[in-house]
Design brief:
By secondary structure, this protein is an alpha+beta fold. 22% of the residues lie in helices and 33% in strands. The strands form 3 sheets. Strands 1, 2, 3, 4, 5, 6, 7, 8, 9 and 10 form a 10-stranded mixed β-sheet that branches. The protein has a 6-stranded mixed β-sheet with strand order 11-12-13-14-18-17. It has a two-stranded antiparallel ribbon with strand order 15-16.
């Protein structure tokens, strides 16, 4: 048995998204069917990003397990002979048996394209959103700058797809204009349901002059989907790439006006230990931050996490369940609380 990783590109126009649905054909369904036929055994793929109906991809990632002896790097060529023209496997390779595309630290890159002119260009209609109101790109850039960094993006998540944890990190948000085509390019640690499309819809409102750029910060602070702009059409969105972390970062620092913390991971690989220092945090965000960052450390391999609150003594309550974690006093290192996996 071996596990094979694939880079999958597709035109999402004719599909009901990635994940198998009852109401129409999906990318996952086509891959399962053609891989099963090719390898002569039941195949079920696991995708990294479950893109919506009409969304495109240049670099989604999927894995599957097989007992077939065909070399992993040859599977992409054989499979492409069977796939429809709007789906292609750009690369296939063998990975370790426990590799999971949704359980790895990675940077996801999306692009949202807007055709901004008076009359639509038919050849671009399937891959961009048409907006005939003139958009001020510089105002959009000013508004987008408020979104960069680690924030609670609850305002930018469709309510019915609400994740339990809505904090995400956007590493960069760039907006470029070439002729009549505006491209919003976003890199982040991960994205909530419809998050990029809601960001695009909100920034278009800024570009039209409906919102001032500073209103984007107010939308973030509201933590309410009703405060943000509309969800932009799916056809303008493309998943560009998923770049997986090859080495564990020694430190992770998260900071905004609501919190600041440092997670030291230097000893995770050698000793299984990580240290979380919370420099400051709003009271209403404290428990969520503690659970979220400790869980991140555990996912990265920590067996023991030491935590310290520099702002308020006693906020880490010993013996209280924080999600899956319970802290006890660390008598060797006073001022620290400790929890073990």
């Amino acid at each position: 048995m071996k596990r094979v990783k694939m880079i999958v590109a597709y035109d999402g126009t004719n599909y009901c998204g990635w994940q198998i649905q009852n109401n129409g054909i999906t990318i996952e369904e086509v891959l399962n069917k053609e891989l099963t036929s090719l390898l002569k055994e039941p195949i079920t793929v696991i995708g990294a990003s479950r893109t919506d109906s009409g969304v495109h991809s240049e670099g989604n990632v999927a894995v599957f397990d097989t007992e077939n002896r065909m070399p992993a790097d040859k599977i992409c060529f054989a499979l492409n002979q069977r796939l429809p023209d709007d789906i292609r496997i750009l690369q296939s390779q063998e990975v370790r048996p426990d590799y999971h595309p949704r359980k790895q630290n990675c940077v996801k890159t999306y692009e949202y394209k807007i055709m901004n002119r008076k009359i639509e260009v038919p050849t671009l209609r399937l891959y961009s959103y048409f907006c005939y109101f003139p958009l001020d790109v510089e105002r959009m850039r000013e508004g987008g700058a408020y979104l960069v960094g680690e924030h609670d993006f609850k305002s930018f998540c469709t309510a019915r797809g609400q994740a339990e944890e809505t904090v995400r990190t956007i590493y960069s948000l760039d907006i470029e204009k070439s002729g009549d085509l505006i491209t919003i390019r976003i890199k982040g640690s991960g994205f909530l349901y419809n998050m990029v499309r809601i960001i695009a819809g909100t920034l278009m409102k800024v570009g039209m002059g409906v919102y001032p750029p500073s209103h984007v910060e107010e939308i973030l602070d509201a933590r309410d989907r009703k405060a943000a702009g509309p969800k932009a059409a799916a056809k303008g969105l493309t998943l560009v790439s998923l770049d997986y972390e090859t080495e564990l970062k020694n430190q992770i620092h998260g900071e905004n006006k609501d919190w600041s913390y440092t997670l030291n991971q230097e000893k995770i690989l050698s000793e299984g230990n990580a240290w979380l220092t919370i420099h400051r945090c709003r009271a209403e965000d404290f428990d969520r931050l503690l659970v979220r960052v400790v869980h991140q450390a555990v996912q990265n391999g920590a067996r023991t996490v030491f935590a310290r609150d520099e702002e308020t003594v006693g906020r880490i309550i010993l013996g209280k369940p924080y999600g899956y974690y319970v802290f006890q006093a660390d008598f060797e290192n006073k001022g620290w609380a400790v929890t073990q996996k």
